[in-house]
Amino acid sequence: MKAAIIGTTGYGGAELIRILHSHPLFTIKSVHTTRDEVPVWNEYPHLFNIMENKLEQINPEKIAKECDIVFFATPTGVSGKLVQEFVDKEIQMVDLSGDLRLRNTDDYQKWYKKEPVSAELVNSFVYGLSEWNKENIATSKRISNPGCYPTATLLGLAPVVKENMILPNSIIVDAKSGISGAGRSPSRANMFAEMSENFKIYKVNQHQHIPEIEQQLTDWNSEMQAITFSTHLLPTSRGIMATIYATLNKSVTNEQMHELYTEMYKNSPFVRVRPLHTYPSIKEVTGSNYCDIGINVDERTGRLTIVSVIDNLMKGAAGQAIQNANVMNGYEETTGLQFLPLYP
Amino acid sequence: MKAAIIGTTGYGGAELIRILHSHPLFTIKSVHTTRDEVPVWNEYPHLFNIMENKLEQINPEKIAKECDIVFFATPTGVSGKLVQEFVDKEIQMVDLSGDLRLRNTDDYQKWYKKEPVSAELVNSFVYGLSEWNKENIATSKRISNPGCYPTATLLGLAPVVKENMILPNSIIVDAKSGISGAGRSPSRANMFAEMSENFKIYKVNQHQHIPEIEQQLTDWNSEMQAITFSTHLLPTSRGIMATIYATLNKSVTNEQMHELYTEMYKNSPFVRVRPLHTYPSIKEVTGSNYCDIGINVDERTGRLTIVSVIDNLMKGAAGQAIQNANVMNGYEETTGLQFLPLYP
Amino acid sequence: MKAAIIGTTGYGGAELIRILHSHPLFTIKSVHTTRDEVPVWNEYPHLFNIMENKLEQINPEKIAKECDIVFFATPTGVSGKLVQEFVDKEIQMVDLSGDLRLRNTDDYQKWYKKEPVSAELVNSFVYGLSEWNKENIATSKRISNPGCYPTATLLGLAPVVKENMILPNSIIVDAKSGISGAGRSPSRANMFAEMSENFKIYKVNQHQHIPEIEQQLTDWNSEMQAITFSTHLLPTSRGIMATIYATLNKSVTNEQMHELYTEMYKNSPFVRVRPLHTYPSIKEVTGSNYCDIGINVDERTGRLTIVSVIDNLMKGAAGQAIQNANVMNGYEETTGLQFLPLYP
Amino acid sequence: MKAAIIGTTGYGGAELIRILHSHPLFTIKSVHTTRDEVPVWNEYPHLFNIMENKLEQINPEKIAKECDIVFFATPTGVSGKLVQEFVDKEIQMVDLSGDLRLRNTDDYQKWYKKEPVSAELVNSFVYGLSEWNKENIATSKRISNPGCYPTATLLGLAPVVKENMILPNSIIVDAKSGISGAGRSPSRANMFAEMSENFKIYKVNQHQHIPEIEQQLTDWNSEMQAITFSTHLLPTSRGIMATIYATLNKSVTNEQMHELYTEMYKNSPFVRVRPLHTYPSIKEVTGSNYCDIGINVDERTGRLTIVSVIDNLMKGAAGQAIQNANVMNGYEETTGLQFLPLYP
């Protein structure tokens, strides 16, 4: 299949190139930007001699004619508009932005503080949390790829929320992300001298991923209530850890909880439930599509701690996008994604 | 006054040297170790030409005779034994280890998994959380300096715990620390290649600082219950952020909460309550003795988020030790501690 | 004495504040910018509660009236113009930019690719390499502060160039700098995600500090010829190491060379010549005004290797500026500069 | 083909696993250590659920019987002894240590300060600088894999040394390496708190890679003389940059020099000669087997600057080892090595 990538100059776009370049079933046909038509390696010197494609302007007619699938790695607010130019065409779409995730367009307006696209357009996209929405993804042609924080959070919470094991108002997510999550546009906040030896909290209870997480949680279990959600910036390029706290609604042992997680993810090749009393760290998934999970039940407080770790550019963006593209086309979901973590 | 430092080769000891070297009222008389008797700058080349003292063996008689105050920057398990050799002498003591903090020696045994010193010895030391125990410190000659995590956590929680504004079983502390907190003994866990671009969680609900925090919380408010406490390792040398969550027991606005914190710390020169809707990051206190606090009340969940930030080697160790030594001797508490943060 | 700082929002300006805030003989009277008139801590939250000054516009009349000395921490190209508004006033000036260093204005034009100020104006400023130009500094009212790379390079080379011990065309400087040297304006090049785990070479044989270094070298020894000069970016906030290579013009032992360096810097409190066979690393001077030097004579090749290390914001900028201001006013040169390195 | 890896717990061994795990023509049959027989993922949690092999003791009989090729990722001093237990067996060997590189065993003794193996054994191994020794590698069964610094340095110097374009005594190599090059044994020097925000020089003109480089240079051009060689530690996990200086023996333009390099590496898929006036940085090859080269001729000094960049664990160790194994077995040299750099 032939693929186009729109929004190639961001980190998500670069990661799509890294994966698709060696994917056995997709070929990169063209890469697009709204900026200058220079070779990709002008923007990304690491691609010198590897990828000779020139960045092209976005011509929906041409793209739809030449390609079978288009990946939008464009910013929130841009994707929504672009997608509309493709809706009348025969082409698969995977969007990595936040524009097509929230079915309640008021929520979009409230949290993103931008104009939403129509609910109808949103509803024509399937939410691509691969592990838990596989059947819908398999029969769709349009995927809205989950956000990075929601991916880590939802994969961590799914078992206990679906099995109704926690108090509905007790979820607290303390999330930490590497800086690539903030994109490739320079700002004071993402300068090296500002972030090295630093650690910041931002958007306390204000992050636009909150409604996305709550939407999925209530889809799984209608009793679920508002969550407390904090996001922090790590002095790393990649990686997300969500440390999640919830109060158990009945007594459960660590062994029982571990058994539940292991069981629920036994058919999910990209979710690794760690042995009891061990926990994943972010570097252990760098460059790979894994989501690693560790759990701890604290008898003293009756609370569950869940540690969920991903590479934000892989399982949190480009990796999951390809995983969804695989599922959508009936391929093995791991195709072209079997990168081992790069360690150290 | 003449000071001796025992345990000079660790990071806490080095930080004591940095402060005392320019302190107007204390002079470093001698530095001690159980290792080789080499010049300090053999261990710490940054002190070359600055400090010509040789490291000396620990001779309690000589130290007590020549010095007015001794700082123990020795590891937990070592301090307790050493301190006993000084109890019959006329010398002020400030201990930075965990050996003399827990009045309940069973707690010590349970959480530290070591033999405790006697309760009597522990009780002869005053807990040196400077901001909240100033009167006792001022009249004591023996200080047990708080742990780094407890300092950040307790300064963050004091106002709402003392004012009884939160549900007693609702406290969750998600703490993150730079690696110097793990000391200067090499191990795989603190290697650069293992920690760069990494972020780890460790000792989930098992950290030995839990009973220290709970002891102080119940001293302040006897209704307080067990806390949930997670510790993480940041890829930084210094810095602690405690992100603290608690459920309010009544409706409070952000403005009221901010007013409370500002009021309660108005006479504490080292606690900076940040303006509403802004939050401190760890680099903003690096090298200084500040504890910076930001707060957020979330109306959606009725939960309070407290962000408390310190330099673990300063306010979390050596800085607070000197602050206590100042108070103990009737000096202005900021004497010799007015380092501005080193930024960037 | 009352001081004004112009260009406060860059890292050099912030470092001037850090030093002057606790300097016993200078007081910060006002801080200036061309940007918004906000409190300094809006730009630098680490100064919250420490410095309440508002940033002010640049009013030369007012500044000259209220202050005794003005520090220009403004960018090259800006300083030169600003300085001209102060030349007819009674105020001491210390400029940290490259605008007033090159006596040959053609060199300025060639290497900086900007319009030079007049040679007359340049010549009214004294080059502030404190260790080697003290007498001129002491009798001047206008100092042009050396660049960061020139400071490290020239202090490393001075003994062998002045003593005429190396082949005149043999100097190679391989210099490495932390990222704060590139200023506080965000650009792709200084983003965290681009620089973490990275190391770059830039401006190979093109750096604008080359003529500054060569000017001083030929002042010391007219036989000196063009140097080879490479600059690299380290994934650190601070620090410069210049590794300098030169061919000896006669046989010299390591011991003789070490003796020479020790002798020539015996009266320079900020230059620490390290013991033979040991070498400084950049973190060993962080936050301090030291320049640390190590040397090695290689018998196999007859070449000398010099390792010269500074904190680029201190000895390479603000620290040396204050050192010069001290000398200019007859104060002890170390006044207000006795910061120990912050380690780790 | 079936492969055994000996010395699996170091970073080089882990990188061999990463490559061989997805190599189409080699299968990992067994992994060996002298430590405990635990699953590999006990040592490397990132391999959890990926590689279930247990670490095994080193049994040469069994290995030779079950495997076609053995990779020694063991330390210098260990490899030499181990290899001797395999010399009488029918098995291909690739050694990554320094034990089998120096034909002059006196050099080994002088620079490594250890007992050398016999010259005969050394001579039975072919030096595996893949790009320049392909014919010998193709007909050998025993490869001594080059050191990391020599790989970067020699690939950078080969064109001008072979073409006799530089003065024989003019080579200066200023090399910088990430910390993984120092191995996975904890020491104070490789602790995070010691290396973060740091940059060190070490083994000035003493590094054991000097004779290895000089041996190859004089093989290429017998006039070449001793080199000046400095090694530095970067605060990064991976990556080497060698900045190399040499004086041209005649006038050459940048264009001519660039043409020469491009021509000489036109058939080397892993060497990327960068466009004139651009230079590679280390992160642009991270995780890949590329060696990227940039060159600059300085007319002012008649000197050539060469910038050569590799990932020390890939082209500097495991990557080149597999490249050699490919060549030795008649496979395409890029087989299983087409990793794109991981960026950012």
What does this structure look like?
The structure is a homotetramer of 344-residue chains. Chain A is an alpha/beta fold and 344 residues long. Chain A has 12 helices and 14 strands. In chain A, the strands form 2 sheets. Chain A has a 7-stranded parallel beta sheet with strand order 3-2-1-4-5-7-6, sandwiched between helices. The mean pLDDT of chain A is 97. Chains in contact: A-B, A-C, A-D, B-C, B-D, C-D. At the A-B interface, strand 8, strand 9, strand 10, strand 11 and strand 13 of A face strand 8, strand 9, strand 10, strand 11 and strand 13 of B.
The fourth-level CATH homologous superfamily of the largest domain in chain A is Dihydrodipicolinate Reductase, domain 2
Largest chain interface and its two residue counts?
A-B, 45 and 45 residues
User: Can you give the mean pLDDT of chain A?
Assistant: 97
- Give the total of beta strands of chain A: 14
What fraction, in percent, of the residue positions of chain A are helical?
A: 25-40%
* Category by helix and strand content of chain A: alpha/beta
Supply the number of helical segments of chain A.
12
The oligomeric state is: homotetramer
Assign the CATH architecture of the largest domain in chain A.
Answer: 2-Layer Sandwich
The number of domains of chain A: 2
The CATH class designation of the largest domain in chain A is Alpha Beta
- N- to C-terminal separation of chain A? 34 Å
